[in-house]
Amino acid sequence: MKPYPDVVQLQHASEQRLLLFASAVRAGFPSPATDYHADPIDLNAYLTQNPTSTFLARVEGDSMIGAHIEPGDLVVIDRSVKASSGRIVLAFVAGEFTIKRLMLKPDGAYLEPENPKYESIKVNDPDMGLIWGVVVGVVKKV
Questions:
Q1: Ranges for the Peptidase S24/S26A/S26B/S26C domain (predicted)?
Q2: pLDDT of 66-123, one tens digit each?
Q3: Where are the domains of the chain?
Q4: 16-20 long-range Cβ contacts below 8 angstroms, 24+ apart
Q5: Domain 7-11+43-139 top-level CATH class
Q6: Which of 80, 99, 100, 106 has its CA 20 to 30 A from that of 135?
Q7: In this structure, how many other beta carbons lie within 10 angstroms of the beta carbon of residue 104?
Q8: pLDDT at position 49, please?
Q9: Rounded to whole angstroms, how far apart are CA atoms 123 and 100?
């Protein structure tokens, strides 16, 4: 049994490669002169530089929609990246995992949501919260 059932480590993910279009794709009017060519890309290599310390987690809730992290998205979390003020982190607070923006202020550390419906969480002491990793990417379906 996996210790965290909703966690998938990237090193155990499929090694199937997808084709990557050779040129960037404009979100505006397309260029008719673009050459259509595709090269393979390994999404594991694209999403992380540290596969042994990186995992995916599925998002529930809407507290981070202002950061374009929405329910059903997969967040890419790297445990080897140092958490710093302004980074989005996976934290373990009051017995639950949560994704919030870490803000270090003169009066303490805060876990800030990106949705005005939610309050900030002030971490008063080290036993109250633990940073598990830094969010380094988001995978979403449209």
A1: 23-136
A2: 999 999 999 999 999 999 999 999 999 988 999 999 999 999 899 999 999 999 999 8
A3: 7-11+43-139
A4: 17/41, 17/42, 17/43, 18/43
A5: mainly beta
A6: 106
A7: 12
A8: 84
A9: 12
Measured from the Cβ of residue 29, the count of other Cβ atoms closer than 10 Å reads 6
Contacts of 56 (CB under 8 A, 6+ apart): 7, 8, 9, 10, 13, 74, 75, 76, 77, 139
Q: Is the pTM of this model over 0.85?
A: no
Is residue 63 part of the annotated active site? The answer reads yes
User: pLDDT (tens digit, 9 = 90+) per residue, 21-57?
Assistant: 555 656 666 566 555 566 677 777 888 888 888 999 9
7-9 and 18-21: which strand pairing?
unpaired
User: Which is the catalytic residue, given 14, 23, 31, 63?
Assistant: 63
